[in-house]
Protein 1
Amino acid sequence: MESFIKSIVIVGGGTAGWLTASILASRFSTRIKHDELTITLCESPNIPIIGVGEGTWPTMASTLRDIGVSETDFFRECEASYKQGSKFVEWDEEASGGFYYHPFEELRQGSNGSFAEYWLSQNSDESFARHFSLQEAICEENLAPKNITDPEYKAKSNYGYHLNAAKFSAFLQKHCISKLGVKHILADVEDVLINTAGNIEAVTLSGNKSLSGDLFIDCTGFKSLLLGKALNVPFNPVSDHLFADTALATQVTYSNKSNEIMSYTQSTAQSSGWIWDIGLPTRRGVGYVFSSKYASVEQAKSALLAYIKNTGGDTSDLNVREINFTSGYRDKFWHKNCVAVGLSAGFLEPLEASALVLVELSAMKIAEQLPRTNALMHLAESRFNKTFRYHWKRAVDFLKLHYVLSHRNTPFWQDNRNPESIPESLQELMQLWEHKVPDANDFEPIGELFNFMSYQFVLYGNKFSTKTPFTADEHAVSFVKSYIEQNKKNRKQIVAMLPSNRELLEKIYKYGLSTI
Amino acid sequence: MNSDGIELLDSVRHKNLKVDTSLVNIPVNQVNAAYIIVNEIANLSHEYPIFFRKDANTGQFGLVVLLGLHSGENLFIRDNKWHANYLPLDVLRRPFQAMLKEDDNFSGGRIAIDMQSEQVKAGKGEALFDDSGNETAYLERVKQTFSQIMGGAEYTKDCMQKMAKLNLIESVSLKFDSVRGKELVVNGLYSINKDNLAALHGDELQLAHNEGLLQIAHLIMSSGSHIQKLINWSNE
């Protein structure tokens, strides 16, 4: 007899757990309504969430829309603000004041990357990002990506969010339970029961209860209770490539209520890592992520305090939390009837906010590949693993690239440029890019987490030099030129038209965004 | 006087002030839309196309009559005359305005006058106060206009919110060919979502009926026929 997949059990209720539950439950709402599928989320009442994932990608806007939440409610309840990209400060050189942007805007340059080629040929003083994207100018003024008259989720300038992870988690929980029919159990997992075929049969819970299911999703964070601990799927560190292993996280209050809210994640290079700075409407989230091989916690802490002081923050009453991690990911993410999503699958480091987007993509892939019957589980397993091994590997390359391009001189940075620390795949790409600009064809058809434009923004933001020996195609050049002209005009217009981040958020609190 | 030339109305200071109501073709009237309140719809729908439009400052839906097809164009004004039987209250109130204590609280306001208005600067026309300092019939009419606007503003806002909640509002884009052969588009307007209106049932239908939303919706839909009039005027 065929046995259908009728119950999904999610263990762990941080952002990863509730986001996965939301995505699956909204995708399978019909099955849930007709009792053909149940989704149960079981979380410990005792374990706090890690909650440092406070930056998203633009994918989150469509995810929220798809799971059916009101963006107005989201802003009101999650201390969310708009993020339009990342600004990298002094990554190239110490104390230079230099910066570059990796904006969220998707440039309309087709797949051949011709913009970068043109920009390189011009030796322009204007940054690559500013030349082609409106967002550098928008971000430098801390403007919102839209006006109050624009409906929910509609952008004049592509955006993601900064948010309070704990509040976001609670917000999704409420939505999952009240609107999406997700069952919620508060209990500690005491044991994991595995049958002879190696599948998880059930988890036993505190209070002599047990919870069985057809598919188990491990959202238990770094502990990886199901995939790692119970099923013994090994963890592969990538700390040879990405050195960061410690984060000191804190929250900084605004000196007054009208302080601007940054429209981007600011990432400022330090002697042994970098400091993130994320503007929420209520506070800033600031943290130093570094390698303990190159700096002690005390050294890092004093660098963090110095940064906070320099950026106008009050350091008198700071609560600094230390988070230790090993950069890396599981050998496989889906094994038998268990799939890990979130920190239980892996974690690289906070750079480029890849954590939440990987949760979104994982949940979507599970929804897409969810087998009808238990017998088909292995197909989903192998497809899922193939895709996500690729994503993680490519993410390592992309994050590493940020470090490799730097000209900073402390041991941390010098060692980052040691070829032995650079993945071969990245070395190959960089070789390639010495002679051509990155384009869509440099990658495999599986789909990129970070597409070639992201590589262009980082490479040329860091003054990477690509030789452009051949004459550019006339039509391409005239297209690029007209694009730049148009971009200049649009820039003036849009900067004049957009309100500040804070102004728009306050209007959203007061009036809300309309749905049309 | 503040820098905008807006002064709170004062029987002493403005004792001798006159308003030239015969001046119609003045800059403040050269706009292609005017805000209206729900109470006016029945009258205005006979002559003007009516739409929803979002307030630029709050994003909230308001009601407007469309006066022209281009920004700054008022096709109802020709030869310094407003060619309609009914004028929107928001036009009639000029050059006066409500001074609001808070931008949202329309009820607690007082009346102010725009000293920079051509109608004031003309130095002739309707007096506001008589020789003994009492309000003239003209000023009383103005005050009545304001009490109508203020009384209707909250109700209008409430209706708009309910209609939006019932998904009765949809974005429309007016496209038409001008005689000069160029396609023109008017954006930023919203009208009635007819499918959703027709699909109303049960409690929602009852609510829409009780609150007068159905009537508003039908008046707005029927007012759409006046767009052709504007296009014809525009082509003249």
Note: Residues 137-165 of chain B form the longest helix (29 residues).
Protein 2
Amino acid sequence: MHGLINRAIQSFVCNTYGQSRWIRITEAAHLGFIEFEAMLVYDDETSLRVLQELCLELGRPQREVLEDLGTYLVSNPNTEALRRLLRFGGVTYLEFLHSLDDLPDRARLAVSDLHLPALELREESGGRFSLACHTGLPGYANVMMGVLRAMADDYGALVMLEHSGTRGKAEVIEITLIETAFAEGRSFELGARAG
Amino acid sequence: MIDLEDLAFLLERLCPMFVLLDRSGRMTRVGPTLQKLRPEQPMQGEKFLETFELLRPRSVATVPALMASSGAKLHLSLRDEPRTALKGLIVPLPGEHGAIVNLSFGISILDAVRDYALTSADFSGTDLAIELLYLVEAKSAAMEASRKLNLRLQGAMIAAEEQAFTDTLTGLKNRRAMDHILSRLLAGTTPFALMHLDLDYFKSVNDTLGHAAGDHVLQHVARVMVEETRGDDTVARIGGDEFVLIFNHLQERERLDSIARRLIDRLEEPIPFNGEECRISASVGTVLSSQFARPDASTLLHAADLALYAAKRAGRATHRFYEAGQSSTSVEPLERAATPSPQEEAAAGQGAARNLAS
């Protein structure tokens, strides 16, 4: 798995639960190091072991932990750069949703060896959408749940999200957009760079 | 034929940085994004060439020449600050009704979005500006991550090199480091003195009190030598209980003798270890680089070695300078047996050799 993904998990754990718990997890997972390098690629098995030990350490189910990770990635100041990149997807939450199909391509444009599985948004009736998260990254849909929830806050939109099982091989998230301008949201200026 | 109002309406949607010019070169309509660059100065009604400076093609300075530039890529900038650079294309309207100029930021887009607080809504849906901004940010973030990785790798490399030149037990330089420094000094013109120091009675500390005591003594000795030398002098551990000190510039025998004397005195002070006292001494031989017309590393080390023999022969705890004609062959066999050469003693000092960094 790409170092950026591993690094995201590391950053999430260190900032939410503290460095010492992260070190415990790396030891339990027999990593042999405590810092993932964002620009290196690690084998999937290593990342999955870390994830497993993380859930054991926290005593929480993986889907919950991953959803929190998704929320963290958008809402924490440490990962402001990522929030900004996601906000380039559109001016409104609706536009953002429609930009999700391009997300894997956008990721690859930034970092050529970062491969995210395909996302497919379908518009149903009455402000309802379904997002199919294709296979390739275990727990992808759970992380996306967190990302979608936090991005809704970011845009000031009011949404309801539900993991609604699988369609074919893909996991599906049901999105109900109740109000696009529910709250103020956070500002996004094109010309302001993340520090 | 479409009238100008309808045309302006279409252009506002398709290319929000357009300008409609009448035949005299006056701006009759200005796209909303372009106007946003000068919110306080309405451009409509102004002369195009008075608001914008045409940088290329250089030959174009008049309205007729501008009108005749159809198809050429125009490089322009605003005449007043901030002098944002723009790219443009001019297309004459049929029937000499003026022309349409379409402008874009080109590479100045990054500054422009910041200077004018532009938003997505300021660009047409087909404009790649937003994608370009996304890409710049994404690449900058990725580059920053790579840069950090490079810095860490560089740090690791320096640490690895440092270790390779350091004696891990004492933190002094090792033989390899000393060889490097010596060859660098020999390549230069700075005179220097080279001191070969060998511990006396170290083996008996190792034998009677154990290797831990030996290690402790070596660390203490290292500390003393660092304290008694200047920052740019070199202190290296080159064998089990053998050390080389290199003093840049220093050629005065008196000073060197007093340094050696002080080293010996301090090393003779009992070193406490786990309730016991370790007692050692040292013999020192010194050579000056100026003693040889063309000194090389092995000659100097050998000369210092000979001076060290002389010191040992003189009854240990002594300092001797190298004198031409000194030789190890003058050592009597009997005397040699009583006073082992530094090499022999080092070989015997297994405890010290055990900890010797390669």
Note: DSSP finds eight helices and four strands in chain A.
